[in-house]
């Protein structure tokens, strides 16, 4: 009985891979949560990763490391200034733009009439691609994304995300 108690205590003390992944995902430094929301935590600046979480670990890792952008656009304002941005909610009066030149991204509300142009992005790169995250950490993060999307706690081997 004593040994079983000890074993249970040891298990409780060691965080699981998905728990480590959640901590890394939401970390202030190198985290993902300043731009992606999962399970109601984080800020939804970038795309929702739930759909991607159903793919294999390799595909998720590749998408994370990729520097190719699909949605980010460089915005030029008539009132002056230009910055890479993700577009949020919009109506006739305002467009929500997340300014990616700021860390964490800054939410701006501008009038559609103030937008001079929106063009393809050649200035902003996805952070982990620039920061070279380790395979061990990325495996934990990918395990957490998969868990958030599917509920599966299947382990992700660092070899799978290299
Ligand atoms: C500074 C903001 C920011 C941070 C931090 C960030 N991302 Fe992103 N992420 C984005 C934006 C913006 C996009 C969309 C880029 C595009 O395609 O234009 C994106 C795209 C992605 C995609 C591709 C999604 C798709 O549907 O194509 C994945 C996967 C992803 N991020 C994972 C991560 C992970 C994992 C982390 C943490 C290690 C992270 N991101 C940190 C802003 C961020």
Describe the protein in words:
The protein has 162 residues and is an alpha+beta fold. The chain folds into two domains: 15-67 and 126-161, Orthogonal Bundle (Cytochrome Bc1 Complex, Chain D, domain 2), CATH 1.10.760.10; 73-120, SH3 type barrels (Roll). Helices cover 32% and strands 19% of the residues. A hairpin with a 6-residue loop joins strand 3 (95-99) and strand 4 (106-110). Helix 2 packs across helix 5. The longest helix is centred in the C-terminal third of the chain and has 16 residues, at 135-150. The chain starts with a helix and ends in a 12-residue tail after the last helix. It binds heme C. Residues 32, 34-36, 45-47, 49, 52, 60, 63-64, 69-72, 86, 100, 105, 126-128, 133, 141 line the site of heme C.
Q: Quick gist of this model?
A:
This protein has 162 residues and is an alpha+beta fold. The chain is 32% helix and 19% strand. The chain folds into 2 domains: 15-67 and 126-161, Cytochrome c-like domain (Cytochrome Bc1 Complex, Chain D, domain 2); 73-120, SH3 type barrels, CATH 2.30.30.
Q: What's the main sheet like?
A: 5 strands, antiparallel
Tell me the β content: 15-25%
Mean pLDDT, all residues: 92
List segments where confidence is low: pLDDT < 50 over at least 5 consecutive residues. none
Ligand kinds: heme C
Stated plainly, the CATH topology of the largest domain is called: Cytochrome Bc1 Complex, Chain D, domain 2
Q: Could you give the count of β-strands?
A: 5
Assigned CATH superfamily of the largest domain: Cytochrome c-like domain
Which assembly state applies to the chains in this document? single chain
CATH class of the largest domain: Mainly Alpha
Cα shape: elongated
The number of helical runs is 5
